[in-house]
Amino acid sequence: MLKLTVKPGEYLLIGNEIKLVFAGGSSNNLRILVDAPKSMNIARSSTFEKQRLAEEPGNVVTHYKDRELSAEAQEKIRAILAEERKKARMAKRVQGQS
Question: pLDDT for 28-50, tens place per residue?
Answer without folding.
Answer: 888 899 998 888 878 777 776 77
